[in-house]
Structure formats: C-alpha cells, structure tokens
Design brief:
Largest interface: A-B, 56 and 55 residues
Number of strands of chain B: 0
Distance between the termini of chain A: 10 Å
Helix content of chain A: 55-70%
Number of domains of chain A: 1
Number of domains of chain B: 1
Strand content of chain A: under 5%
Oligomer: heterodimer
Helix content of chain B: over 70%
Amino acid sequence: MAGSFSLWLFAVSMAASALGGMLGMASGIFIVPLLTIFGHVEIHTAVGASIVSVIACSCGGAAPFLKNRLTNIRLAIVLEIATTTGALTGVLLAGIVPVSYLYLLFAVILFLSAQQMLARRRSPVLASAVSEASHSRDALGLNSRYHDRELGREVRYRVHRLALGMVLMYGAGLISALLGIGSGVLKIPAMDTAMRLPIKVSSATSNFMIGVTAAASAAVYFMRGSIVTEIAGPVAFGSVLGAIAGARILLLVPNDKLRVLFVVVLVVLGIQMLLIVFGVHLIKVSR
Amino acid sequence: MNGAGRLEELLAALLRYGSWSASAAIGLGYALALIGSHADSWNPPVLSNMRFVRVGIVLFILLPILRVLLMLLFFIRERDFRFAFISGMVLAIILLGIFLGVPAT
C-alpha cells in the first residue's frame, strides 16, 4: 500500500513536471491540487512536498541560464531580500490561515495562471533599449546586457522601478510559501511589466530566485515537521526526472496545442479547488 | 566583467552538482527499497533506505542557502561590500526563519 502510493506520487509528479517544463512553468502549481484532490493528502503536507520539488526544479534548471549569462545575479540577490521576507511572512500565515482560504487562494492563482498562459508575453526589449549614458542612474549596478542568440547581438537593458519590483516580489514570496508554488506566475509579470526586463532575462532571473525563496520557507516547514519524507521524496524525484523529460519533449510537440491543454487543466483544477472550499468533490476518487 | 563571469560559473557548478547529488541520494534510497522488497509485494520502504531519501531532501533545501553563502564569500573577496551586505541580509532572513520555526519545546 505504502509502496504503491509512493509510485503514484512519483508518476504524478513526473507527469506534472514534464508538462510544466514544456511550457517553462514550474510543476508546483499542479502538485498541490493533484495531491489534495486525487491523493487525499492534507494540504499542508502537500505544500511541504511541493516546495521541495520547486527547489529541485529551480536548482536543476539554473545552470544553462547562468552559463548563457541570462541570469541577472545582482538583481536577483537584491530582490531576494523581498522574496525571502515574503516567504517568512507566508510561513507564519500558513499556520493561521484557515484551510478553506488556502484552497480559495490556490483557485485564484490557478485561474490567473490560465489567463496568463492565454495572453502571450510581449517583449519590452525595444521599449527599454538603453543608451550608455543612462547607466549613471543605476546606483547598484543592476543594469546589464545579454547576448541574444535569435537577434544575434548584444542586448543592453535597464532595470526600471526597482521599488515597485520589490513590493511585488514580497507578495510573490508570500504566496510561494503559503501555497508551495514557485510563484513564477507573479514574478514574471512583475519583472516583465513593472521592471521592464527582456523576457529571457526575467525568466532566467525568476528561476534563479525561486530556489532561494522556496528554501527560505522549506527550511521552516522542515523544522516544523511539515515535510514528510514519504511524500516529499517521490514528489521531488519525480519532478526532477519530469523536468528533464519535459525539456526533451518540448521540441517535439506543437506549442499551441500544449498551451490549450495547459489552460484546460489549470481551469479544471481551479474549479475543483474552488468547489472544495464549499465542500463539493466533483472528482470522486476512492483509494 | 570577468569577475561576474566567474561567479556565474561557480554558481552553475554548485547548483548542477548539488542537484545531481540530492537526486542521487533520493534515487538511491528508493532503489534500495525496491531491491530489498519481495517480488510480489512492494513493502513499505525500509527505514534505513528512507534515511537516504531524507538526506536528499535536506540537500535540496540547503542548496539555495549554500548558493547565497557562496555569493556572500565571493562578494567579500571581490571587496564589493554593498553586495556582500545584501547577500548577508538574505542569509540572515533565511536563518531567522529557521530560528523562528524551531518548535518552542
């Protein structure tokens, strides 16, 4: 019984992570709904398992971004002050907030992700094309550049509205800790829209920050005993393998069909999470 | 610019090998559990094997924290004290959480 449940956790996490990886999303957003709806895992335990897999996916995927100099390390460490503070706030709230509110908040995040998946990201690169002179206003030396392979040239960029970015990152860290997700769904718009970073830079930098943000809350959850080895182990291992598989399959499947499948899954899970708030279980699973 | 490139190389290596080690520990735990179980029934994983899994989980949680520590040391060595301070702050926030998270007993 325990063994087959481990296998189930492993398979589900691998599938979720492969799916997520194909569209550059962390698997975290699927893991908590799947574990709570189908696995009848208690939501705090599901969050604890999910947050470990979020770290795994962030750390496992960081190296190529770093080697291609897409990650803005200096900006990341500055923003991490806000994300880790948010994560601690989230961890403190997690013990207080009623479980039904967690489901409700999760449903909202799922719908937001679906909506974001439908609306394509637009690159603000051209809008923020920067001249050498504007570096003078960059007190922390956060402005940078990266080599864009598609454009075949160096792209310089400026970091806009750092203060607003910090506030949004605090929120992203809080949600990440509370729900056990990477909360790229909140980080990416903050970096794309508020800070006007090029898409590739915000994706890479967001991925880089997600690990530290998740570790800040995971460490506390671990000390509290909310991270159950028997649940978190298979989930983390499945996610790592799934992420590797997802990156390979990515090249074989048409992106638009995948996008539609993704939106459908997100909405269905969101509706079910919403119904749980009102005590309705549409998807009956007996285990 | 050269300095920044070296930090990126260091971080990439830490995160890559760290992830591999943590995954390997978890995988090893389950592989041993699988070998140790009988063919007809997948017994509840043996305690000693679950210890490997737990080590893997702890490694994953420590990895980003080590990453911040590495940045702190790098910035100190580069005499970039502003960013050393910022890295130190992030580390302090994480440690504060661990300290607050310890049960009062």
